[in-house]
Amino acid sequence: MDRIKERLQALRVEADENAAKAEEYKGKVKSLESENMQKEQEITSLSHKNQVLESEVEKLEGSVKNYKDEATAGAASSTQNESMQRKIQVLEEEAEESDRTIRELNEKLRQTDVKSGHFERKVQALEQARDQWEAKYEEMAKKFDEAKKELDQFAADLGNI
Fold it and tell me: Which top-level group of life is the source organism from (predicted)?
């Protein structure tokens, strides 16, 4: 009888621990989903910034062409041309850096997706294990009630003897 109570208590503790783990993993999944959403927003922002920079580069390249045409007309425009070339170079470097950042963020997003899928599978496995333990607990509770009834009947029979 004590063994059954101890076993039931152990099953209850284990079921509680599994439920706590499931909640913990649900929290982790939510956290990863939130992180994933932030990364997607950051990627969107960087993509927009990259488009703006590319647009500026195109505008500046057009300006550089105009300045080159003007440079042939006068030596004074050569300094402006050099300045525009430097600006273009800086913008191109910024665009390249943005591209690298986007690639890195895409890789991080992919890794986050993989981790999220992994944790979702873990949560599902824990939920299944919890359900199995709950079913075992209910089965053991029924057996305990049946054993108790048999013991009470046996005690009553002994009392009648």
Answer: Eukaryota
